[in-house]
Amino acid sequence: MKKIGMLFGKERSFPDAFVERVNSKGVPGIVAEAVKIDKVMQGEPTEYAVIFDRISQDVPFYRAFLKNAALCGTAVINNPFWWSADEKFFNNCLATKIGVPVPKTVILPSRDLPPDTSAESFSNLQYPLDWDGIFKYIGFPAYMKPFAGGGWKSVYQLNSMDEFFEKHAETEQLVMMLQEEIKFEEYYRCYCIGGKYVRIMPYEPRNPHHLRYVADFKPSEERYKLMEDIVLRICRYLGYDFNTVELAVRNGVPYAIDFCNPAPDAEVTSVGQENFDWVVETAATYAIEKAQAHVDGADNLTWGEYIKRSANRQKLF
Predict the structure, then answer these.
(1) Where in the sequence is the domain holding 15, given as residue range(s)?
(2) 95 lies in a domain?
(3) In a domain? residue 273
(4) Total number of domains in the chain
């Protein structure tokens, strides 16, 4: 019997529907349930062939549990080693190398010193930074956001240098990105599951949260194919089994705005019933595929093209 486990936190609609859908398919030798943890012993396998991770980004104990499980052969969705290493500034850097349009972006040192550091810890950092060069490159309006993500927390829209310095002073020890604003005509949030299943959803981030999926953008067949190609390229290079990519279309060009979302919102009240049904069905199908392909004691994780090419000493891009 191959078990598929769902690891989750406060959310209920997606985890419950996922477990129910996997079991309702009645695939011989496959069963799904909520993960049960009563102890974690180093080097000891879990009872799960596959674990679907929806919460370890907020719970370090779970991330350590998943890494141990993966070392012992569990296929974890998403790969906990890559997820631990990844962040949004790297994603933007990678996009520039694989032909994906992204906003102009710079990374900034934290406004306040990190714990256990002093001014001497930053001997290689030139002070002051070349603010004129940075602002000329990015321009205004601009967005400032944490380089490691965090949803919409600590995200600022900025219209001037004075506003930047005022808001940057509020960010304390966060490492921030300053990013060009893309004034878009259309916006899409795109699910990618298994590096092959894509759902492109019209999305309006300027609406209240509960109305953001109420948008009537209708891409042409050509633009749809272009966006699908961008989504697949990003997720295959990053190696995410379950991710969303946000695309802002300016002058007909889709710009990847936010594409490191390995535990994206999948609540039915957020995405709407039709999108929710697709996510549940497709996630269940893919998890079953992973369980059927599972090999006891082997590395059953998904590794992205970036890592695979590095390991094989191939040309990266």
Answers:
(1) 2-85
(2) no
(3) no
(4) 2
**Separation of alpha carbons 140 and 158, rounded Å:** 7
> What CA–CA distance (Å, rounded) separates 94 from 72?
30
Q: Is 212 part of a structural domain of the chain?
A: no
The answer to whether residues 263 and 54 touch, using CB atoms and an 8 Å cutoff, is: yes
DSSP class of residue 194 equals T
How many secondary structure helices (H) and strands (E) does the chain include? 10, 12
- Token pair, residue 92, equals 């933007």
Please give the Cα distance from 285 to 287 (Å, whole number): 6
| Same domain? 77 vs 36 | yes
pTM value? 0.94
Looking at residue 122, the DSSP 8-state letter turns out to be G
- Give the tokens for residue 180: 């060009």
The per-residue pLDDT for 206 is 87
User: Is the confidence at residue 47, as pLDDT, over 80?
Assistant: yes
Using CA atoms, how far residue 68 sits from 31, 62, 65, in Å, is 22, 10, 5
pLDDT digit string (tens) for 153-180?
A: 889 999 999 999 999 999 999 999 999 9
